[in-house]
Amino acid sequence: MPYIIGLHSAASAFLSAGFATQFTVAIVICLVIVLVTSKPSTSAGSSLSLHRSFFRQRYDFLNWGFQVTGESIFQFKLMNNTVIVLSGSSARQAFFYSKGFDLTEGFKILSGAIPMVRGVTSGLQTKRISTIHRRLAAVQKNAPLSELIPAILEDSRRMMESYGATGTFDPFDKTYELIFQTTVRSLSSSEISDDAVLVARLKMFTTPATVLAPWFPTLSMIKKLWATKEIYDIVVRAIDSREASGIARNDTLQMLMDSGDDKLVIVGFIMGLIVAGARATGTTASWLITFLGGHVDWQLKAKLEMENLLAEHSDSTSASLSCRLAEIPLEAWESSTPIMDSLLRETLRVAQPHTAMRRNLGPDVYINDKLIPSGAYVVYPFSDVHLNPDIYPEPLRFDPSRKPATKVDLGYVGWGVGNTTCLGTRLAKLELKLTTALFLLGFDWHVVDKTGGVPDSLPLPNWNDILMCRPPPGSCNISYNRTELAL
Ligand code: HEM
Q1: Which InterPro entries has this protein been placed in (predicted)?
Q2: What would the mean pLDDT of 333-350 be, rounded to a whole number?
């Protein structure tokens, strides 16, 4: 980043200062920037510069933009940045394959969900990011992924035991909490994941404040920045105490340390990937449990699939479910669960409210004759394809028996396509299958509304909630009974 002459030495001093100093200075700068720039933009396109809507009512806002402009591509101003919104098959193709479109740069400004702390959640050098991605690939090789199976199942058993024999819960809290735990287990250390208080604090960090805009330091944003520092300290303490003890453990932290990575890579790996991973996986798990609670036919089909897997791979019929499920090899989880695969695919299509974000790092490009200048931000809402009635009739209807969309190119982008595909797919799918399998065999359940009654129809995913598609709190609960099988 170029620094203005004269400010160069101050910038260098800032960058070489400790985290706490950077953090405090960053907050003060944030406040000043907001005071100076908080009047609405008057530049071209400002009639669409509804910052609040972009962060709080994104689905409605983007649809409104397409409607009022009558175009399949429109632009608006977000503070002083040009943001271009794309739709349609050829634009989708160009978006996912344009070489100059950069995910990290786009995410930094447009995400609005994560506090950006230089060197921790932003500003990581490309080299560090690619090391983090390489380590993520290493965690998902056959041997380490197989070793995670009993650990994920044991976490799930422990948490599901606490539900008791019967009751109700909000899946967007409870199921998310479960996935958060299994994600922390998979991506950090045994010391952190065994400590419920630390895990709860990590969860607080990744559950975003109500964000007006990423640079708007509302009180909750500032609290979250402090939380980021706390979490940073937690991870660094875990590294230091592991180093000091000299005792090696069999977990992801050990793999990172044995690879000789510096602290920033390890902290970036744990914090960044928990954010990237737990949210999308937690959202999917919460909706999957909800959909299965309203579609008993699919619940029974999925249960049968799991019973068949157990019959094939586990001899110890008297052992607990989690122990028996742990006997099923990774290969079977990955290639012998067609029902579960179609459930996941449909859940992602209907209830993953992702908007892909990029910055054009150059050169200028044209998409459908529309100029995307170098430096502009570009977004592609997944709703454009996943909720398109021409591709998926009655798009909000959950129907895992749908055939893959073959009428259009890139008719399904649930795990990303082109230059950017999800690098955590194997882990995410495994976590989803293991946790759902234990719930399927250990519980019978259905959806109830606020009053405890069975609703006439399931709540629809709310795409304006950019994180979880969460329906109004309280409108959807899971009412469950334990089966007779020991977890
Ligand atoms: C159900 C769970 C998940 C879903 C649906 C999902 C989906 C996606 C999608 C659609 C993208 C591409 C985004 C874009 O094009 O803008 C992506 C990227 C990514 N995902 Fe996932 N993801 C999930 C879980 C995870 C997990 C558990 C991890 C890590 C442990 C992870 C790590 C990543 C990373 C690092 C990228 C960025 C790749 C890059 O920069 O090239 N994801 N994910």
Answers
A1: Cyt_P450 (IPR001128), Cyt_P450_CS (IPR017972), Cyt_P450_E_grp-IV (IPR002403), Cyt_P450_sf (IPR036396)
A2: 98
- 414 CA closest ligand 1 atom index: 10
Ligand 1 and 416: CB distance under 6 A: yes
Return d(Cα 335, Cα 325) in angstroms, integer: 15
Does the annotation place 422 within a ligand binding site? yes
DSSP-based three-state secondary structure for 354 = coil
- Over 60: is that where the pLDDT of 373 sits? yes
> Which pair of tokens denotes residue 288?
């999957």
Q: Is the minimum distance from the CB of 293 to ligand 1 under 6 angstroms?
A: no
> Which pLDDT tens digit goes with each residue over 133-177?
999 999 999 999 999 999 999 999 999 999 999 999 999 999 999
CA-CA distance, 293 to 287, in Å (whole number)? 10
State the closest ligand 1 atom to the C-alpha of 352, by its place in the atom list counted from 1. Answer: 5
Domain ranges in the chain are 19-482
Rg of the chain, C-alpha, whole Å? 23
Q: Is 420 in the pocket of ligand 1 (CB under 6 A)?
A: yes
Residue written as tokens 């960053």?
26
| Structure confidence at residue 36 (pLDDT) | 39
The overall longest dimension of the chain from CA atoms, in Å, is: 74
Would you say the C-alpha torsion 387, 392, 396, 399 has a positive or negative sign? negative
Give the three-state DSSP class for 270. helix
Q: In 3D, which of 198, 188, 180, 194 has the Cα closest to residue 239?
A: 188
Q: What is the CATH number of domain 19-482?
A: 1.10.630.10
| Low-confidence winner among 278-287, 360-369, 464-473 (lowest mean pLDDT) | 464-473
CA distance 161 to 163: 5
Mutate to test the pocket of ligand 1, among 422, 425, 433, 436 (most ligand atoms within 8 A of CB): 422
